[in-house]
Amino acid sequence: MGLPLSTVELQQLNEGVFNVDLYRNMHNGPPPARAECQYPVLPVGQNFVVDFGRQKALHGKWQVVVNDEAPFYLCQRVFENGTLSRRKSADHRRKFFEREIYLALEKEE
């Protein structure tokens, strides 16, 4: 078990700043390896429609905005007029796993 966290370290964790040394102290090992992609990497700008699942907030049209962390893609909601939402809330911006996106693309066909 690592040392107790200081208030500065707790603040860094809450803000999303990742400290590798702190992680190693807490978990006694290196950070986990990144997951490998099972599908081709989607291009930025790829649109898809989610119309499945229990979370109604996810239903609608989405667009891939960042694909650097594939197989996880940062996506933004697309409005009916075709513009991207600028809101940063979870209802308008979230990470989708590649399988979710490919499932949505298969249903569109």
Short description:
With 109 residues, this protein is an alpha+beta fold.
How would you describe this structure to a colleague?
26% of the residues lie in helices and 20% in strands. It folds into two domains: 1-32, no CATH class; 47-108, no CATH class. It is α+β, with helices and mostly antiparallel strands and 109 residues long. The chain has a four-stranded antiparallel beta sheet, covered by helices on one side. The protein is globular. It starts with 6 loop residues before the first helix and ends with a helix.
The end-to-end distance, rounded to whole angstroms, is 51 Å
Poorly predicted ranges (pLDDT <50, ≥5 residues)?
none
Instruction: Estimate the helix proportion, in percent.
Output: 25-40%
Topology as H/E string?
A: HHEEEEH
Q: By helix and strand content, what is the structural category?
A: alpha+beta
Strand content: 15-25%
Order of neighbouring strands in the sheet with most strands: 1-2-3-4
Largest beta-sheet details:
4 strands, antiparallel
**What count of structural domains?**
2
Radius of gyration, in angstroms, nearest whole number: 18 Å
> What's the helix count?
3
Number of strands: 4
Overall residue-averaged pLDDT value: 81
Describe the global form.
globular
Q: Name the assembly state.
A: single chain
Essential attributes:
109 residues; alpha+beta; 2 domains; 4-stranded antiparallel β-sheet; 20% strand; globular
